[in-house]
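Page 42, continued from yesterday. The earlier attempt failed because a stray header line got pasted into the input along with the sequence. Redoing it now with the clean sequence only.
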Amino acid sequence: MNSTTPDGPRQTVSAGPPPPPIQNQCRKCRQPIGGNDAFCRYCGTRQQVTDPFYYHPISILLLAFFVLGPFALGLVWRSQSMDRTMKIILAILILTYSAASFYALYVVGMAMYQELSALNQIL
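This time it went through. C-alpha coordinates are written below.
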Protein backbone atom coordinates (compact mmCIF):
# COMPACT_ATOMS: atom_id res chain seq x y z
CA MET A 1 0.00 0.00 0.00
CA ASN A 2 1.51 3.27 -1.13
CA SER A 3 0.28 6.68 -0.05
CA THR A 4 1.35 10.23 -0.69
CA THR A 5 2.72 12.58 1.96
CA PRO A 6 3.72 16.24 1.63
CA ASP A 7 7.35 15.10 1.36
CA GLY A 8 6.61 12.68 -1.47
CA PRO A 9 5.41 9.12 -1.89
CA ARG A 10 5.51 6.93 1.20
CA GLN A 11 6.55 3.32 0.97
CA THR A 12 5.45 0.69 3.43
CA VAL A 13 7.89 -1.91 4.58
CA SER A 14 6.66 -5.45 4.67
CA ALA A 15 7.69 -7.46 7.67
CA GLY A 16 9.81 -10.43 6.69
CA PRO A 17 10.62 -13.49 8.68
CA PRO A 18 12.14 -12.85 12.12
CA PRO A 19 15.93 -12.80 12.23
CA PRO A 20 17.58 -16.08 13.23
CA PRO A 21 18.73 -16.32 16.85
CA ILE A 22 22.23 -15.03 17.45
CA GLN A 23 24.76 -17.82 17.53
CA ASN A 24 27.89 -17.41 19.60
CA GLN A 25 30.71 -19.79 20.38
CA CYS A 26 31.55 -21.08 23.83
CA ARG A 27 34.63 -19.41 25.29
CA LYS A 28 36.10 -22.80 26.22
CA CYS A 29 34.94 -25.56 23.85
CA ARG A 30 33.97 -23.36 20.83
CA GLN A 31 30.64 -25.16 20.36
CA PRO A 32 27.75 -23.00 19.07
CA ILE A 33 25.51 -21.59 21.80
CA GLY A 34 22.62 -19.12 21.87
CA GLY A 35 23.30 -15.42 22.24
CA ASN A 36 21.53 -15.22 25.60
CA ASP A 37 22.86 -18.44 27.12
CA ALA A 38 24.58 -17.90 30.47
CA PHE A 39 26.27 -21.32 30.38
CA CYS A 40 27.48 -23.59 27.60
CA ARG A 41 25.16 -26.56 27.17
CA TYR A 42 28.09 -28.77 26.11
CA CYS A 43 30.81 -28.10 28.70
CA GLY A 44 29.02 -25.96 31.31
CA THR A 45 31.43 -23.00 31.12
CA ARG A 46 29.96 -19.69 32.22
CA GLN A 47 29.61 -17.31 29.30
CA GLN A 48 29.98 -14.14 31.35
CA VAL A 49 31.01 -11.09 29.36
CA THR A 50 32.26 -8.95 32.25
CA ASP A 51 34.76 -9.75 34.97
CA PRO A 52 33.62 -10.24 38.56
CA PHE A 53 34.20 -7.30 40.91
CA TYR A 54 37.49 -8.69 42.21
CA TYR A 55 39.12 -8.39 38.78
CA HIS A 56 38.68 -4.60 38.56
CA PRO A 57 41.73 -2.42 39.36
CA ILE A 58 40.34 -0.64 42.44
CA SER A 59 39.10 -3.89 43.98
CA ILE A 60 42.45 -5.54 43.31
CA LEU A 61 44.32 -2.70 45.01
CA LEU A 62 42.03 -2.81 48.05
CA LEU A 63 42.40 -6.57 48.32
CA ALA A 64 46.17 -6.32 47.87
CA PHE A 65 46.66 -3.54 50.44
CA PHE A 66 44.33 -4.88 53.15
CA VAL A 67 43.86 -8.62 52.67
CA LEU A 68 45.95 -10.56 50.17
CA GLY A 69 49.21 -8.68 49.82
CA PRO A 70 51.38 -10.10 47.02
CA PHE A 71 48.89 -12.93 46.48
CA ALA A 72 46.71 -10.41 44.63
CA LEU A 73 49.11 -10.56 41.67
CA GLY A 74 47.15 -13.53 40.37
CA LEU A 75 44.04 -11.36 40.18
CA VAL A 76 45.99 -8.71 38.28
CA TRP A 77 47.17 -11.06 35.55
CA ARG A 78 43.84 -12.91 35.20
CA SER A 79 41.80 -9.74 34.79
CA GLN A 80 40.45 -9.17 31.29
CA SER A 81 39.33 -5.60 31.94
CA MET A 82 42.87 -4.14 31.94
CA ASP A 83 45.51 -3.83 29.25
CA ARG A 84 49.08 -5.03 29.70
CA THR A 85 50.44 -1.61 30.74
CA MET A 86 47.86 -1.26 33.51
CA LYS A 87 48.65 -4.78 34.74
CA ILE A 88 52.36 -3.96 34.93
CA ILE A 89 51.67 -0.73 36.84
CA LEU A 90 49.41 -2.53 39.33
CA ALA A 91 51.94 -5.34 39.77
CA ILE A 92 54.71 -2.82 40.53
CA LEU A 93 52.47 -1.00 43.04
CA ILE A 94 51.54 -4.24 44.79
CA LEU A 95 55.12 -5.50 44.92
CA THR A 96 56.41 -2.16 46.22
CA TYR A 97 53.71 -1.99 48.90
CA SER A 98 54.33 -5.61 49.91
CA ALA A 99 58.10 -5.09 50.16
CA ALA A 100 57.63 -1.92 52.24
CA SER A 101 55.17 -3.73 54.51
CA PHE A 102 57.49 -6.69 55.04
CA TYR A 103 60.40 -4.35 55.76
CA ALA A 104 58.33 -2.38 58.27
CA LEU A 105 57.28 -5.62 59.93
CA TYR A 106 60.94 -6.68 60.10
CA VAL A 107 62.00 -3.36 61.67
CA VAL A 108 59.23 -3.54 64.26
CA GLY A 109 60.08 -7.17 65.01
CA MET A 110 63.77 -6.38 65.49
CA ALA A 111 62.95 -3.44 67.77
CA MET A 112 60.71 -5.67 69.87
CA TYR A 113 63.39 -8.35 70.00
CA GLN A 114 66.00 -5.85 71.19
CA GLU A 115 63.65 -4.47 73.85
CA LEU A 116 62.81 -7.96 75.09
CA SER A 117 66.51 -8.91 75.13
CA ALA A 118 67.32 -5.80 77.18
CA LEU A 119 64.45 -6.57 79.55
CA ASN A 120 65.62 -10.18 79.88
CA GLN A 121 69.15 -9.01 80.86
CA ILE A 122 67.73 -6.70 83.53
CA LEU A 123 65.72 -9.48 85.10
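Notes: The first helix runs from residue 57 to 68.
Reminder to self: strip header lines before submitting.
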